[in-house]
Amino acid sequence: MRWILCALAGGLLCGQVLAGEPAREPDPASWTERFDLSGLFYLTYENGSLDDEKYSRFYITRAYFTVEAEILPFLSGRLTLDTAQDLEGQGRGDMEVRLKYALAKFHWKEIGILNDPNLEFGVVHMVWLDFEEHVNLYRMRGPMFMERSEIFNSADFGVTFASGLGADMDDTFLSYAGNKYGTRHGSLAVGLYNGSGYHGDERNVDKTVEARVTWRPLPDVAKGLQVAGLIIDGDGNVEGIGGDPPDWTTYNGFVSYQFLHGTVTAQYAWGQGNQRGDWVEPDDPSRAMDFSGWSVFGEWRVGDRHQWRLIGGYDDFERVADTGQNFSFRYGFASIGYDVGHENIVMIDVDQRDWQDPARATDRRAQLVLQLRF
Fold this sequence. Notes:
Strand order of the largest sheet: 1-2-3-4-5-6-7-8-9-10-11-14-15-16-17-18
Order of helices and strands: HHEEEEEHHEHEEEEEEEEEEEE
Shape: globular
Largest sheet: 16 strands, antiparallel, barrel
Helix content: under 10%
Radius of gyration: 21 Å
Number of helices: 5
CATH superfamily: Porin
């Protein structure tokens, strides 16, 4: 399967170059129109306790800066810098800048049911989190369920093919549900990656295959209803010790409903191991540990401009080693936010994570967050 995907990616790239519009020299006068600059900052004050240690700090959770460029009619490029504070090691306290995305993106015209088919090559979006973060818009308060549970993150070195399915939905729906995944029958994405994540180095020769399919079953009756599935098959990003690296398999079923006044989602995930390769049995580092968990999320928008946002969610995650060591937790949160315009949101958020291991203290956090977007 992995070699087939490699061959498919190479064929798509070559086919685009040969069959696309002839390359043309850019018009120097149009260069300013070819570039798009954007930023996304999460500026935070937080107060709480982690592992029974109290903290209180002003903090920049994330600061992204993105440059996108139209290079040719069928080719664009993107560079995103990710700035975060180092909280450990010799550089503790430093604001570190790393690449989140550095990719070439090839575009095709519509092909049958495929709407805006495209292929990313480089440090690219993995197939899941970009989709979920266009349904649950509140990454500003914390990572999504599977990333927070430390199964995987959002980007990796590799190649991703993605496409919408069917025509675009009507403008009224797109105005509150977004237009990136706003196609009539859903969307799909498939990718081949190192498996290390965008801030990890490749520690074995194995590659990870990922696929997501999203289906909108009732586009006329319940436009906002989507059902999605995710499959990941690979190995943890560690060197094999006396054998192969531990397995990493993830499956996820997801249902969401977006409507004028909000969004609700529910999902169930299960599998073995994780991206980093450190979910292993204590007595056998080549054997991945099983996991399972579920999550629900809800948002309600009120006000004459829907500027007030009431948000809540609950996660339940289980990972228990054969030796009985327990890494399971339950996690709940509630937030109230105010959109001052164009998704620039001020939010007060509280959450609590209860570990099922009685030896671990409950983690608590209250925070004030400003999402700054331009």
